[in-house]
Each structure stands twice: as structure tokens, then as C-alpha cells.
Design a protein that fits this description.
Keywords: Decarboxylase, Flavoprotein, FMN, Ligase, Lyase, Magnesium, Metal-binding, Multifunctional enzyme. By secondary structure, the chain is α/β, with parallel strands linked by helices. It is built from 15 helices and 22 strands. The structure holds cytidine-5'-monophosphate.
Length: about 450
């Protein structure tokens, strides 16, 4: 199997210096990297540094005739398996969205027939500007995978989203693209993936695909293919995991809805830990303003019915972890227009209808995952309620947590894993630590229930 090839397009911006680390990481992992740098990018990193690290020629100009003789720009844009734009500046993304091709980088991006992954970096105001929001939506609609930028202090001193994701996170997204290929940009086959951070269609279809690369093998089984060797500890490598998280919003009329206080933090931490542990992760999220963890495929939904439909679409998976606080009821009828006070003092009636129980439905589904996990937030008789819920829902584990002391939205969690085998009680831990510990337990359990083929 040939080493996977990356065409790395480096835009201008202070974050361009991070491309040096990215190239180093990619080379170390065995990727072949060819760099193209924009004129603005050259202000921050030199082609010489990139050439030395990538051990490959660096391309800078469309009009360098020598380059055209050696390799035409069409060929350059197509010989890679994946085109990565990092940093993707506001300017570069605007040109990509508009289909402008006025330098080597933008010409390659328009000419390529390969999937494109963009890692944005810009000032927070620029990232939040309506024009950039539009461009990002257009690019995602065209099948370009646009990562969420990191949040934090910027080189300019402002604070917020817009920092280039760390090189390890970009590499994780690249690794994920090779284990579950991205769609082709430009509508060549990817189809619209508007609100997705990584495209869902590929998550779905990859279930039926033969192993796309040795990357699906488990660590230690790589018969010399170290190009694809997963990072040190990836016990869920080769697994597909579906996670629901956050609340659902059930509309009453166009401006009002029924909701709950779920923050989504534990579910998002679990999705992050699952991706870190090497799994392909599909996160079906209710409305929460949390950033998408690196390497995670996210689908945003509003209602329980939408969540149920997306869960069904996401199957089959090795494990499903249902962390979402799904609303038990929705408004029986949603008013098409805002319900108005008429001054009579009469309160409008609000009839409720029961929502589908997604977890219980999945337990009965012919595509029931080998490991099905539910959550239970309780204020009293925690274990007894969790045991009853385990039986009622037909799942394998219930992760029970007492929300009487630390209500939803906190940073830590004390959980008890309730199963047929008994109760495994853990200390109070930060939510990220709960998530990581859960991944270890899930990996062990999956090895028992559904061992991976070791070829
Ligand atoms: O019944 P209860 O809401 O307490 O059950 C909690 C568990 O069931 C969680 O795992 C939650 O994600 C799941 N659930 C669901 N669909 C519902 C209600 C709860 O998947 N309609």
C-alpha cells in the first residue's frame, strides 16, 4: 500500500508557523507531504524550511514555468489523496467559496478532484463576520470539510474562536479522513453537508466499505506498515461509535420551545475521548454551543424526533452511548405562528405528546449495537432507579449519576456503571476523565463482545 499523499496549502497569517509542526507530524506518521505556500504565507514561513521538513519541493507560484514543465498545476492538484488548507485564512476561504483562482493555491483548490480539509485561522471578529459565516456554510455545502477553529487568546490580543486548531488536532482530522474518507469538494460527489463538521454520508457508507487502509488494523498488527500506525494508545481503533448529547428542543410555536438544562458537556467529552481513543465517532447533538471535538462527525438536531431519525441513519455501530437528555414530551401541535396573548386572561392550552424513547427503540432494533449504553441522572435512590432503567430500556449498561448535589452543567461527575454484572462505582472526576475511563471500559467490553478481526 502506497503512503497516503497530502497536498498542504499554507495561507498567510501568523498561524502559518504552525504548519511547520504539522508537516513534521505528518512526515513522522508516514504521510507524503507536498507544500504549496501563498505569497502571504511566505511572509511567515520560508519555502526552504518547508522543503527541508517535507523532503519535497515546495511550490509557490502559478507562473513558474519550470514548475509547469516539471508538473502542471492540474497534476499537482490531483496527485494527492487529500488537500489540506492550513491555515485557511478568511481571504483564502472567501476565494474558495467564490471559485476564484488567481494564484497557485486557489487554482489548485478549484482544479482538484480530491477531498479538501480546511483548518481556519483568523481574528475572532473575522471568523464571526457574516461574510465568513456565509463562506464557511458555502464551503461545507460544497463538500469541503471545514474544521472549527480553536477558542482562546489570539495573536492580536482578542479572545474567542479563530485560532488555528493545534497541529495534532489537524493531524487527527487527517487520520480520520483516511479511515473514513471525506467527500469530494465542489459537489463532485460529496453532496451537501451543510451543518456537518465532518461529512455524515461517509460515516454511513464506510460501514459497508471494506477496510480502506491498514489503519483499521489494531495497534501492533501493522506488519511494517508504520505509515498508518495509530498514535500510542488507541484502544478503540477500528470501532464506530455513536453518541447522543445535549438536550432536545421541542417547539411550541416559532419562538417558544420545551427544553431542559442539559449542557452537553459530558456527551461532548465522551465524543472527544472516543475520537482520541481512535474510534470513528458520530455525535448527534441537541442544541448546545459547544465546539466539535477534533475528528468527530457531528450532526446538529433540535427535536427528539430528529435525533431518533439521525440515530437510525447512523447505524450500524459497534457501540452507542446515549448521553442526551431527550425531552420526554413534545407539544402535540406546533403552532405555525407565534401564539399571542389576547388580553382576555385566558391561558392557551398546551397538549403534550410522548416522544420516542430512542434508547429503548435501539435496544429492540435489528441493528442493535453490540454494546448499548444509557445514562441516568437521578436525584434519589440512584442505583435502584438505574437498575430498573437498565431492565426497562433493554440496554447493557446504565451510567448513573446523582444530580442532586452537582446539577447539570458542572465540570465534574461521579458515576456508577450499572449492568447485569453489578455496580462499578467511580470517584468524582472531571467529565473528561470520566469519558476517558469509560472508553477504556468500552474497549475491553467490545473486545469480549465483538472482537476485531486481526489480519
Ligand atoms: O428515561 P430516562 O430519560 O431517564 O432515560 C435516560 C436514558 O435514556 C438516557 O440514556 C437518554 O439518552 C435515553 N433516552 C432516549 N430517548 C428518550 C428518553 C431518554 O434515548 N426519549
Amino acid at each position: 500500500m502506497a503512503a497516503p499523499r497530502i497536498l498542504l496549502i499554507i495561507g498567510g497569517g501568523i498561524a502559518a508557523y504552525k504548519s511547520i509542526e504539522l508537516v513534521r507530524l505528518l512526515r513522522k506518521a508516514g504521510y507524503v507531504v507536498r507544500c504549496v505556500i501563498t505569497r502571504a504565507g511566505e511572509q511567515f514561513v520560508t519555502p526552504l524550511t518547508l522543503a527541508a521538513l517535507s523532503e519535497n519541493k515546495v511550490y509557490t507560484s502559478l507562473f513558474d514555468l519550470k514548475d509547469e514543465v516539471e508538473m502542471g498545476h492540474i497534476q499537482l492538484s490531483r496527485e494527492a489523496d487529500l488537500v489540506v488548507v492550513a491555515p485557511a485564512t478568511a481571504d483564502l476561504m472567501a476565494k474558495m467559496a467564490a471559485g476564484i483562482a488567481n494564484d497557485l493555491a486557489t487554482t489548485l483548490l478549484l482544479a482538484t478532484d480530491k477531498p479538501v480539509l480546511a483548518a481556519p485561522a483568523m481574528n475572532v471578529r473575522m471568523w464571526l463576520h457574516a461574510a465568513t459565516r456565509r463562506n464557511v456554510a458555502t464551503l461545507r455545502g460544497d463538500g469541503v470539510t471545514v474544521m472549527e477553529p480553536d477558542e482562546g487568546e489570539m495573536a492580536c490580543g482578542e479572545y474567542g474562536p479563530g485560532r488555528l486548531p493545534e497541529p495534532v488536532a489537524i493531524k487527527a482530522a487527517i487520520d480520520a479522513a483516511f479511515s473514513s474518507p471525506l467527500p469530494l469538494a465542489g459537489g463532485v460527489g460529496g453532496g451537501p453537508v451543510s451543518s456537518l463538521v465532518l461529512p455524515l454520508d461517509d460515516f454511513r457508507s464506510s460501514a459497508d466499505m471494506p477496510s480502506p487502509s491498514p489503519s483499521r488494523k489494531r495497534e501492533g498488527d501493522l506488519d511494517g506498515q508504520s505509515d498508518f500506525a495509530p498514535a500510542n494508545h488507541r484502544p478503540l481503533f477500528g470501532r464506530r461509535i455513536l453518541i447522543t448529547a445535549g438536550p432536545t428542543h421541542e417547539p411550541i410555536d416559532p419562538v417558544r420551545y420545551i427544553a431542559n438544562r442539559s449542557s452537553g458537556k459530558q456527551g461532548f467529552a465522551i465524543a472527544a475521548a472516543a475520537a482520541e481513543a481512535g474510534a470513528e465517532v458520530l455525535l448527534i447533538a441537541g442544541p448546545v454551543p459547544l465546539p466539535t471535538p477534533p475528528g468527530v462527525i457531528r450532526i446538529d438536531v433540535e427535536t427528539a424526533n430528529e435525533m431518533a431519525a439521525e440515530v437510525e441513519q447512523g447505524l450500524p455501530v459497534d457501540a452507542a452511548i446515549m448521553v442526551a437528555a431527550v425531552a420526554d414530551w413534545r407539544a402535540a401541535d406546533t403552532a405555525p405562528q407565534k401564539i399571542k396573548k389576547d388580553g382576555s386572561g385566558q391561558v392557551p392550552p398546551l397538549a403534550l405528546a410522548e416522544n420516542p424513547d430512542i434508547l429503548a427503540g435501539l435496544a429492540k432494533s435489528p441493528q442493535r449495537p453490540p454494546l448499548l449504553i444509557g445514562f441516568a441522572a437521578e436525584t434519589n435512590d440512584l442505583i435502584a432507579h438505574a437498575q430498573a432503567k437498565l431492565a426497562r430500556k433493554g440496554c447493557d449498561w446504565i451510567v448513573a449519576n446523582d444530580v442532586s448535589a452537582d446539577p447539570m452543567g458542572g465540570e465534574s461527575n461521579q458515576v456508577h456503571i450499572v449492568s447485569q454484572d453489578g455496580v462499578d462505582s467511580w470517584d468524582r472526576l472531571p467529565k473528561a476523565a470520566v469519558a476517558r475511563k469509560l472508553m477504556e471500559k468500552i474497549a475491553d467490553e467490545l473486545e469480549k463482545r465483538a472482537p476485531l478481526e486481526r489480519d
